[in-house]
Amino acid sequence: MRAIELNAVAVAANKRAFEWGRRLAARPDEVHAVAGEAFPEAREPASLAEIIDRRAEFLTGYQNAAYAQRYRDLVAKVEAAEEMLGRGRELTNAVARYYFKLLAYKDEYEVARLFTGGDFEKRLRETFDGKLKTTFHLAPPFLNTGTYPDGRPKKKEFGPWMFRLYKVLAAMKGLRGTAFDPFGRSDERKMERRLI
């Protein structure tokens, strides 16, 4: 509780949440009875078509419509092959889920898109009161600041001006995977491209 007070952010709400967490750990049935509708019934799993549509929409924002079509095309090929063999849709479901994860790797452009899409700042305003000063702790490869003994890169602190840079970077997502991608020469990015 002292840590919540020292943090001085939404103290009353955080104390209440902490107490509810304690109660949930000790007497979950009582908490669920009090919460009632806060724990709605689980939704039915999404259909394969819904999964494909949702992920293709995400990939369009992540890169572009051609990238999303690449995803749809491979899933459709697998589905057609599986249909010919009469083996159900287990492989198609797996490809729809996991090929998407390969395509939508979180790189510098995606981080920039997520920070500048509006949701991040909205959630900050909803979570914290008062004037906020945002800082980012980053380890850009071109600023090689060394590593810790365990191999993690040392990070530098950057101020709120990064939002402007993130907007520029998000707009440059078309460079992803091309010869002009300034981040594309790192071992991590090369490995990601080999996987897809």
Order of helices and strands: HHHHHHHHEEHH
Helical content stands at 55-70%
Output mean pLDDT. 87
| Number of E-state strands | 2
Any key phrases for this structure?
single chain; 196 residues; mainly alpha; 2 strands
Characterize the structure shown.
The structure is a single chain. It is built from ten helices and two strands. It has 196 residues and is mainly alpha-helical. The protein folds into three domains: 2-38, no CATH class; 48-103, no CATH class; 108-190, no CATH class. It has a two-stranded antiparallel sheet. Helix 5 (65-85) packs antiparallel against helix 6 (90-103) and helix 7 (108-116) crosses helix 9. The radius of gyration is 22 Å and the shape is extended.
Would you summarize the structure shown here?
This protein has 196 residues and is mainly α.
Topology, pairings included?
Blueprint (H helix, E strand, L loop, with lengths): L1 H6 L3 H16 L1 H8 L12 H15 L2 H21 L4 H14 L4 H9 L2 H9 L8 E3 L17 E3 L3 H10 L15 H9 L1
Antiparallel strand pairs: 1-2
Helix pairs in contact: 2-3, 4-5, 4-6, 5-6, 7-9
